[in-house]
Design a protein that fits this description.
mainly alpha, Arc Repressor Mutant, subunit A, Serine Threonine Protein Phosphatase 5, Tetratricopeptide repeat, three-stranded antiparallel β-sheet, 11 helices, 7% strand, elongated
Length: 268
């Protein structure tokens, strides 16, 4: 079984998609896929599907959704003679919960976590080239917003927020490494796009300012600072942090330190 959640929901068995169209069974499958090969308690599933106000029939309805998912899997795998036994092996009851059995298949979120952790270790070991490659491979696994086509509840929303934050940390770490490797030309456009999406993120804007300055775009770097300051004041009523003001002054002064690959932004 292969699972993808770093974009639209993808769950396939032997190359055949088994994703249902109905919203609740789809959300149920997404939660099980997110936790492939792990027991998801029935209580957690009910929290995801109905939040704090589950219906009195929640337990029975959940069993119905499980049966619907198994029928979908069985029917997609063998349309002429649904393979119910295989479907029960793939979506199995265990204790007071359910498990989506991966059978050694691929799961993009698990691979993202593996590559990100490996990249961070290489960075700590001082192997910047390998760290950059691993972290880039981790973020390249994303093909959209997490579970963009699923009506998510509170449990999945929490997981999605965790993933987004981890991805942000991975991107910032990889960009910082690339800047130290002198790759400012290769990251400046990426940082520009990220800054547009997150207008008040100081770390990204600081990295963008440094990359623009090193690319010979001093005016653009100063404009980036002013756009950030305007957004922070308008949306949060805050001034940029002192380190960003210092970076702005260094750019105004054409401080030679900024051209050195040894220079590090203090926020990253």
């Amino acid at each position: 079984m292969d699972v993808g959640v770093l974009g639209a929901l993808q769950v396939s068995v032997d190359g055949t998609s088994v994703v249902p169209t109905a919203p609740k069974p789809r959300a149920l499958l997404a939660l099980l896929a997110f936790n492939m090969d792990q027991v998801v308690p029935s209580r957690t599933i009910c929290d995801e599907l109905w939040g704090e106000t589950p219906p009195k029939s929640a337990a029975t309805t959940l069993q119905t959704y499980i049966l619907q998912l198994r029928r979908t899997i069985a029917g997609e795998l063998s349309p002429l003679a649904p393979d119910t036994a295989r479907a029960k092996q793939l979506l199995t009851t265990r204790g007071k919960g359910y498990v989506l059995v991966g059978e050694g298949g691929e799961c993009d979120v698990a691979e993202f976590d593996r590559l990100a952790s490996a990249g961070m270790r290489r960075s700590e070991e001082g192997d910047s080239q390998a760290a950059s490659e691993l972290l880039r491979r981790a973020t390249d696994l994303w093909y959209g917003e997490v579970l963009v086509d699923v009506e998510t509840g509170p449990v999945l929303e929490t997981e999605i927020m965790r993933l987004k934050e981890r991805r942000r940390i991975v991107v910032e770490s990889r960009v910082q490494i690339d800047l130290a490797l002198g790759r400012h030309n290769s990251v400046v456009d990426e940082l520009s796009a990220l800054a547009v999406r997150d207008r008040t993120h100081e770390g990204l804007h600081g990295q963008l300012m440094l990359a623009q300055y090193r690319c010979g775009r001093r005016t653009h770097a100063l404009q980036t600072f002013h756009r950030l300051r305007t957004s922070l004041l308008n949306e949060l009523g805050l001034e940029p942090s002192p380190w960003l003001h210092r970076l702005q002054q260094m750019i105004l002064d054409t401080d030679p330190v900024l051209a050195s690959e040894e220079y590090r932004l203090v926020s990253c």
